[in-house]
Automatic annotation (TrEMBL):
GO MF annotation list: nucleotide binding; oxidoreductase activity
PANTHER family (alphabetical): BINDING ROSSMANN FOLD OXIDOREDUCTASE, PUTATIVE (AFU_ORTHOLOGUE AFUA_2G10240)-RELATED (PTHR42840:SF3), NAD(P)-BINDING ROSSMANN-FOLD SUPERFAMILY PROTEIN-RELATED (PTHR42840)
Family: Belongs to the Gfo/Idh/MocA family.
InterPro entries: Gfo/Idh/MocA-like_OxRdtase_C, Gfo/Idh/MocA-like_OxRdtase_N, NAD(P)-bd_dom_sf
Domain Gfo/Idh/MocA-like oxidoreductase N-terminal residues, every copy: 5-124
Domain Gfo/Idh/MocA-like oxidoreductase C-terminal, first and last residues per copy: 136-337
Keywords, comma-separated and alphabetical: Oxidoreductase
Oxidoreductase recorded as keyword: yes
Protein's name in the database: Oxidoreductase
Amino acid sequence: MEKVKFCLIGAGRAGMVHARNYEFEIANTEIVAVVDTNKKIAEEAAKELSANNFFIDFEEALIGEEFDAVCIGAPTFVHAETVIKAAEAGKHIFCEKPLSSTLEEANQMEEAVRRNQVKFQIGFMRRFDQNFLKAKEIIERGEIGTPILVKSVGRGPGLPPKWYCDVKRSNGLLAEVNSHDFDSIRWLVGSDYEQVYAIADNFKCPQYREEYPDFYDTAVVSLRFKNGVLGMIDGCCPATYGYDARMEILGTEGMLQIGSQQAYSVLVWNNKSQLIKEGNRSWRILFKDAYLEEDKYFANCILNNKEPEVSIEDGKKAIEIVIAANKSIKTGQPVKL
Ligand SMILES: NC(=O)c1ccc[n+]([C@@H]2O[C@H](COP(=O)([O-])OP(=O)(O)OC[C@H]3O[C@@H](n4cnc5c(N)ncnc54)[C@H](O)[C@@H]3O)[C@@H](O)[C@H]2O)c1
């Protein structure tokens, strides 16, 4: 195989980030088909991406077009059925986070991937971000001693799509925004979660109180890892001021911080004596290079027959802790894993 042919499933916000990378930025990949249940979106995306075909149903794509891999950017609640269908059809799978809505689904997905021996990568792009990679190296070299406390801020600017508001369906803010924090802390600390306690509330979206009584837009999570490290996540969406993703790791011999609020290292000093810096507006800007690296990596795993390191197991671990944190919010009690 010289070029990996992709079928994009879900041509929304995240799906199109990857699809543009595969079509325009990476030499040995292309998008040949687009599936979106919204016909207009499918058609427009196929046109932009010069895909051969567009469909409103994945099964039609499996019959109507030849491809090697799927890139899933459809909503979380359709990940399980789509991944299982793709695996059964022998297609390699890149799937956006969160892996699934339930652990049962996650187990079925893992089984289908294993049985059909297809490659699978979950969309934790922070694992490909230069700053997070540098932090990982520094921790592994022991430069801050042994990590003892990790704090992670994960706040999104605006409300994500409507399906996200139903916490029973989406697992809410902690899944849709903060699963990146849960995954990257676990990766940096090198240990699995042992206990979680979380509190949350709806401060900013009174319009959802009646229709979605479980909806929360702000959360604080405290964590303990199996290796004893303590953790804390602060999440909010819509934060309204921008996309805010920062982390601080305290070690026995020092500390490190990852992430900046500034989108660019440009400072403007205007004639009103104001110093102006531009803040991060979107995950699409802050992690632009990380998405590209993650997409290149997945394509290379297919071309070189390597197992992707950001695996279905990582997706499962993130879902497991999110579900436990939501249980803690509901019961007001700490939850052991
Ligand atoms: N890694 C990241 O940083 C990141 C960022 C944003 C979203 N995401 C994840 O990506 C996924 C999609 O989120 P989004 O914000 O792009 O959503 P979105 O609503 O912008 O896009 C989803 C698209 O999927 C289509 N769709 C719905 N059901 C479908 C189905 N059964 N088959 C095919 N298409 C279908 C919708 O019509 C829509 O065009 C979610 O799982 C989300 O958590 C990840």
